[in-house]
């Protein structure tokens, strides 16, 4: 019998390339710890994933909440300013230099959610045209 993994994501996701290197700062809510610098790996209207230095592992955990401060003023990245995310999972593989955090949006206004949704739809359509 073949193993089938059921996709849990509800929303389409756009993956950024390493070349795009979209830097984001994460501020832990209700905590005065220093800001965390992360790289945006993927984005959907429901959440985002980030790569960050494993030195942050002792101060982050599943369920933690962060406010986002994007490093670029371009769409849809600027739409993330002030959004709050909750860490859903942390990938900590010893063969990787960094760790990866998968997050869901817990606070993002509807206008910015729609901007992200429209941008992703456009980019995925654009990428499909390039690949065919």
> CATH-wise, what's the superfamily?
predicted glycosyltransferase like domains
Radius of gyration, whole Å: 15 Å
Per CATH, the class reads: Mainly Beta
Strand order in space, largest sheet: 2-3-4-7-6-5
In total, the number of domains comes to 1
Give a quick account of the main beta sheet: strands, pairing sense, barrel closure. 6 strands, antiparallel, barrel
- CATH fold annotation: Thrombin, subunit H
Low-confidence stretches: none
Instruction: Give the helix/strand class.
Output: alpha+beta
Question: Which terms would index this structure?
Answer:
globular; alpha+beta; 132 residues
Secondary-structure topology with pairs:
Layout: E1 14-15, E2 22-28, E3 36-44, E4 47-53, E5 65-70, E6 84-91, E7 98-107, H1 110-131
Antiparallel strand pairs: 1-3, 2-3, 2-5, 3-4, 4-7, 5-6, 6-7
């Amino acid at each position: 019998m073949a193993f089938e993994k059921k996709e849990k994501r509800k929303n389409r996701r756009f993956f950024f390339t390493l070349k795009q290197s979209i830097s984001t700062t994460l501020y832990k809510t209700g905590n005065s710890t220093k800001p965390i610098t992360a790289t945006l790996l993927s984005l959907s209207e429901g959440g985002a994933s980030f790569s960050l230095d494993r030195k942050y592992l002792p101060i982050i955990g599943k369920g933690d909440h962060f406010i986002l401060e994007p490093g670029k003023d371009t769409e849809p990245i600027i739409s993330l300013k002030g959004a709050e995310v909750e860490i859903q999972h942390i990938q900590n593989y010893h063969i990787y230099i960094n760790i990866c955090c998968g997050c869901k949006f817990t606070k993002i206004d509807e206008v910015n959610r729609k901007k992200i949704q429209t941008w992703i739809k456009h980019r995925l359509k654009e990428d499909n045209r390039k690949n065919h």
